[in-house]
Amino acid sequence: MSPKPKTFFRSLLAAGVLVISCGKAAPPPPPEAGARPFVDDLGRRLALPPRPRRIISTSPEVTEILFAVGAGDRLVGVVRGCDWPPEARELPAVGDFSNVSLERVASLDPDLILTTGHEQERMMAQLEGLGVPLVAFMAADVASVRRNVAAVGEIVGEEEKAAAVVAAFDAELAAVEAEVRSIPEAARPRVYLEISPEPLMTVAEGSFVHEALLRAGGVNIGADLPRPYCRLEPELVIARDPEVIVLAHSAVAPAAVTSRTGWEGIAAVRSGRICEINPDLILRAGPRLGRGIATLHELFYREP
């Protein structure tokens, strides 16, 4: 689950949810013999090794994808926060989400570095100085999550395994979609997803998490907020009267939400529909997102 409030934003960054596009990247190094062309999510044209064998990941979600497609044994380094699957915790750490040790990275002799492209522009510029191919992934919707799984599989030469992961992901989505399809829109619950209690934050249109809420059969009360991951005032939550509150953090317990000033009249508080979810299932753009959407659906429609 998410860390305590003082380290909460570090958790959000590690989950890849505070989105600021990187600036112009340095030109890629000349392609090596047998190198494959690839265009990453920042639009950079890259020359990648045909089958990378020593990979460093600076993204928890990309680390999950690598293990899911059968390339976890080629990871030689990660950043702190790469904690799933459990084997990832045993890998050498080269730093945290925003800062890595270039000396540590170089000592591991990587032939490929994979990043999220979110809030890592300074670090990426430093890493590019090592002359190692650097690929950035940025997921804005559910389609780009499945696309990134396929792309990682292609990069590491595990296309068949990646296709199987995507197929399982699609099956999870289809199962939920079949249930949601039969629910009239007027009967779908108003949902407030809290990703931070201090400051109060939720998700809006333009984030893959917002789409996850919709696919799970909810109506996101923060859909029209100005940024995909956005602060909001408690009065807005009260005014929009969510029928379900989902805490995607462990900074406060559901009982603490009921004692917030003015929240006692909110429908979700009155009915006791304040739920908790493992944030990594819905805030990471990785292969567990399908399970996260299914879990949200269960929370939305289970009896209080």
Characteristic terms for this protein:
304 residues, alpha/beta, Rossmann fold, 4-stranded parallel sheet, 13 strands, elongated, disordered N terminus
At the first level of CATH, what is the class of the largest domain?
A: Alpha Beta
Fraction of helical residues: 25-40%
Unreliable segments of 5+ consecutive residues: 1-11, 13-26
Mean pLDDT reading: 90
Indicate the proportion of strand residues: 5-15%
Annotated CATH homologous superfamily of the largest domain? Nitrogenase molybdenum iron protein domain
- The strand line-up of the biggest sheet is 4-3-5-6
CATH T-level topology of the largest domain: Rossmann fold
Q: What is the count of helical runs?
A: 12
For the record, the count of structural domains works out to 2
Give, in order, the helices and strands: HEEEHEHEHEHHEEEHEEHEHHEHH
Alpha-beta content class? alpha/beta
Rounded radius of gyration (Å): 20 Å
How far apart the termini lie comes to 23 Å
